[in-house]
Specification:
The chain contains 13 helices and 16 strands. With 463 residues, the protein is of the alpha+beta class. The strands form three sheets. Strands 6-10-11-16-15-14-13-12 form an eight-stranded mixed beta sheet, with helices on both faces. Strands 1-2-3-5-4 form a five-stranded mixed β-barrel. A three-stranded antiparallel beta sheet has the order 7-9-8, with no helix packed on it. The longest helix has 23 residues. Bound molecules: 4-amino-1,4-dioxobutan-2-aminium adenosine-5'-monophosphate (4AD) and magnesium ion.
Length: 463
């Protein structure tokens, strides 16, 4: 007999009366000398399966090894349950303990550990209700993202993780080298001799797959990437990770309005997918962390995003009379307090802010006629701030080259990118969605370190 997942057992009322085999980890055991109840969970659902041990058939010695955290195989008849909160339970006939978990030192003894405590136990926290729920939602969202793009004929493009170019120009890259750091080879001028490095030049982990994504879009039409990206910013915030996953669609023949339409449709699709497919987990997370979660998700689904220029957004902020920690005026980069004011207090809706000053945006964005702004778009969400960053791309060879020169980006690194503008250039656009920011929104969790299994952030690369 092949064992059944607990999710399958709980979903099939016609199994009642039959013998089933289940396997999982013990969440708790309680009872008396006549009957004992074990809550078993195998990670397939937020719900535990109750196993009933009739103590006329088992000894106290049998039961001793069944403690919180131990792993079990149980067979027995599935019976309709009288108990509150469950439809059925297993009447244990026979069981086997795979592994014990000593109550004296198993860290997840009691319910209700703090999230901070669990972050230190990230190797075991997937065994908690909270993290198993988050990780199931994360998996479902990854699938929804592929489904959305595949249904629309986008090609999934794998872009490199090791790169010699800095897409965002922020300089926050993790260097990749095999040079001996304690004995760096030097050129005659005393500079580090990268000719001797593994790739023969300086390389780093990518901050974005966009530049290669554009190579794909200008050949395949519509592509998307979905992979890890790395940023060595010293941002110790609840919204930043040093290693995060990004989804970057890039589309030939899209202008910025097409790009905004796609971003809005895409976000709503993911949220709808979560509501349709992760109901039990979302209800659990709502109950324990964020009472307004489901209504906030539905609110975003049923409202058009506001579309507004940066210039108009800054005007609203200046006229708000609000005292911000970071003062705001035309030309400043917006902080999350500004973004959240626009979204949560002024419009009370998601906002797509466009046409930012060129000085605060990356070199590749399409320049507007005014000579001051570029065709950027940031999607701002309640509780999160920026969830998506994107733009229409500069498609004109001369303008792009001029911007690259102005910013002092070495041409020798960029020749291949410029070739897309030299040969059969097309208007095109794209954006990047931070996967963990989407998960923050969908799960209602407050800290980005709690929506990725093993978070990387300054001074932490444990597990
Ligand atoms: O705005 P960003 O830096 O844009 C890009 O990288 C573009 N190349 C995207 C594109 O147009 N193809 O990053 C995009 C998104 C942000 O909106 C945010 O959601 C997320 O990535 N993000 C982070 N998420 C977690 N931790 C960090 N340190 C992040 N930095 C950006
Ligand atoms: Mg951005």
């Amino acid at each position: 007999m092949k064992h059944l997942k607990i999710s399958a057992v709980l979903q099939q009322p016609d199994l009642v009366g039959q013998t089933v085999e289940v396997k999982g980890w013990v969440r708790s055991r309680r009872g008396n000398k006549h009957v004992q109840f074990v809550a078993l969970n195998d990670g397939s659902t937020i719900k535990n399966l109750q196993i009933v041990f009739d103590m006329s058939k088992f000894t106290d010695d049998d039961m001793k090894q069944i403690t919180t955290g131990s792993s079990l195989r149980v067979t027995g008849e599935l019976a309709a349950s009288q108990g509150k909160g469950q439809t059925c339970e297993v009447q244990a006939a026979e069981f086997e303990v795979y592994g014990t978990a000593d109550p004296a030192d198993y860290p997840l003894q009691k319910k209700g550990h703090t999230l901070e405590f669990l972050r230190e136990k990230a190797h075991l926290r997937p065994r908690t209700n909270t993290f198993s729920a988050v990780l199931r939602v994360r998996s479902a969202m990854a699938f929804a993202i592929h489904k959305f793009f595949q249904e629309r004929g986008f090609v999934y493009l794998h872009t490199p993780l090791i790169t010699a170019s800095d897409c965002e120009g922020a300089g926050a890259m993790f260097q990749v080298t095999t040079l001996p750091l304690d004995k760096l080879p030097r050129t005659e001028e005393g500079k580090i001799d990268y000719a001797l490095d593994f790739f023969g030049k300086p390389t780093a982990l990518t901050v974005s797959g966009q530049l290669e994504g554009e190579l794909g879009a200008t050949a395949l039409g519509e592509i998307y990437t979905f992979g890890p990206t790395f940023r060595a910013e010293k941002s110790n915030t609840p919204r930043h990770l040093s290693e995060f996953w990004m989804i970057e669609p890039e589309m030939a023949f899209y202008d910025i309005a097409d790009n905004m339409d796609l971003a809005e449709e895409f976000l709503k699709y993911c949220i709808q997918y979560a509501l349709d497919n992760c109901k039990d987990d979302l209800e659990f997370l709502a109950e324990h962390y964020d009472k307004d979660l489901i209504s906030r998700l539905e609110f975003v689904l049923h409202n058009d995003f506001v579309r507004l220029s940066y210039t108009d957004g800054v005007k609203i902020l200046e006229e708000s009379g609000r005292k911000f920690e970071f003062p705001v005026h035309w030309g400043t980069d917006l902080q999350s307090e500004h973004e959240r004011y626009l979204v949560e207090e002024h419009f009370k809706k998601p906002v797509i802010l466009t046409d930012y000053p060129k000085e605060i945006k990356a070199f590749y964005m399409k320049q507007n006629e005014d000579g001051k702004t570029v065709r950027a778009m940031d999607v701002l969400f309640p509780k999160i701030g920026e969830i998506i960053g994107g733009s229409e791309r500069e498609a004109d060879y001369d303008k792009l080259k001029q911007r690259i020169d102005e910013l002092g980006i070495p041409m020798k690194d960029m020749w291949w990118y410029l070739d897309t503008r030299k040969y059969g250039t097309v208007p095109h656009s794209g954006f990047g969605l931070g996967f963990e920011r989407l998960l923050l929104f969908v799960t209602g969790m407050a800290n980005i370190r709690d929506v990725i299994p093993f978070p990387r952030y300054p001074k932490n690369a444990e597990f």
